[in-house]
Write a structure and sequence with these properties.
By secondary structure, the protein is of the alpha+beta class. The chain has three domains: about 90 residues, no CATH class; about 120 residues, no CATH class; about 110 residues, Homeodomain-like (Arc Repressor Mutant, subunit A), CATH 1.10.10.60. The protein contains 19 helices and seven strands. Strand 3 and strand 4 form a beta hairpin. The chain starts with 5 loop residues before the first strand and ends in a 5-residue tail after the last helix.
Length: about 375
């Protein structure tokens, strides 16, 4: 999978980019709900309400004239072009925060309903994982649970710079507000912190208006962290029949390709096999194809078995350091390297520095 892989349903993208639906035609309402006050907001609001969505699609190289929206897939590169066009047109660098703050549960439609009607918070998080995989494969959401905390983490399957912050802002602010509505804003189950992998942007102060918990930049990951007791909390809107109905309606009406992408399927196989990565031939059998076919399918996506394995190893290594792990011997063994020196060489290729340098640069200030 790369920036030009057409795997994002345009119908899903339309849900997020149709700003005229999410923004009320009243400046005071927008400012109250978003928490943002700025000079010239009236003129910006008029720009938003008069935004021609299909004109923006055309500028981003998304042609809907022949195929329409249903059944049309776009690439991450096209989405980045679209985000760039909209942000520049509106002159709103923090558009992700604004959009996320205005996205109520009903805005997410069947996808939102499928999530909040699950029996527990953990089940809801697992449903979110699937939605990310199916509807926006450039991002991958994973849930991590231990005795102390539950962490919802978002990683990039392809680099979305320079607008990584837009996608993370939009999703995390929307998550936070819906979550707070479900558990109560003053509940002891509210998030303990929100972490961002990137440096604090010029509008970092706006983050702290939205999240009533510590906000950590340069954290090495994008994560929404809450107490572990949240995992088994009953969802207030739990309804098994409604959850199944919403999920079925969503995927019947919106074709998806995410789960069929071979590189992503291979990565998921590696993740499940942490500590015992399969050979190419074994992985191919697990994916229902020959080794030759797997090589060809990966080459078509401009990647390889080794590139995908290294990507997963890098992610596991950084996660190990984030959890406070320091033994290079242990980590090298877990990742299947013959020695710490071989692992260190690989890590330097991935990050441009040694594991020790990486820890000192990124995590010393957090300890």
């Amino acid at each position: 999978m790369n920036l030009d892989t057409k795997c994002i349903p345009l119908a899903h993208l339309q849900t997020y980019m149709n700003l005229t639906v999410s923004i009320p035609e009243n400046v005071d309402t927008v400012e109250r709900r978003s928490g943002i006050r700025m000079t010239g907001f009236n003129s910006k609001l008029n720009k938003i309400l008069n935004l021609n969505q299909f004109e923006m699609y055309q500028k981003a190289g998304i042609d809907t004239s022949s195929q329409g929206i249903d059944g049309h897939f776009v690439s991450a590169r096209q989405v980045l072009c679209l985000v760039d066009e909209v942000i520049k047109h509106l002159d709103l660098p923090f558009l992700g925060l604004l959009m996320g703050s205005l996205m109520t549960l009903t805005y997410h439609g069947m996808a939102g309903l499928a999530v909040v009607t699950q029996p527990t918070m953990l089940k809801s998080a697992k449903m979110l994982e699937r939605l990310f995989s199916e509807l926006f494969p450039p991002l991958e959401m994973t849930t991590h649970l231990n005795k102390k905390e539950i962490r919802i983490q978002i990683d990039e399957n392809v680099p979305l710079n320079p607008y990584t912050h837009f996608f993370i802002e939009l999703n995390f602010v929307s998550f936070y507000n819906i979550y707070a509505d479900l558990v109560g804003h003053d509940s002891d189950m509210m998030p303990e912190r929100v972490e961002f992998s990137y440096s604090e942007p010029a509008w970092g102060h706006i983050y702290r208006r939205y999240f009533r918990c510590p906000v950590v930049f340069n954290a090495g990951r994008n994560a929404f962290v809450a107490p572990s007791c949240v995992a088994n909390k009953d969802m207030p809107l739990a309804n098994r029949l409604m959850a199944l109905t919403a999920e079925r309606a969503l995927f019947e009406n919106m074709p998806t390709r995410g789960m069929q992408l071979v590189p992503l399927r291979l990565r998921r196989l590696f993740i499940k096999a942490y500590g015992a990565f399969p050979s190419l031939e074994v992985a191919a059998r697990e994916l229902g194809m020959s080794g030759r076919t797997l090589r060809r399918r990966l080459a078509e996506e401009e990647t390889s078995y080794q590139q995908e394995l290294d990507l997963v190893r890098k992610r596991f290594a950084i996660e190990y350091f984030l959890r406070g792990g320091k033994s290079l011997t242990e980590l090298s063994h877990l990742l299947g390297y013959s020695s710490t020196s071989v692992f260190t060489r690989a890590f330097r290729i991935w990050t441009g520095c040694s594991p020790t340098e990486y820890i000192n640069k990124n995590f010393k200030k957090q300890s």
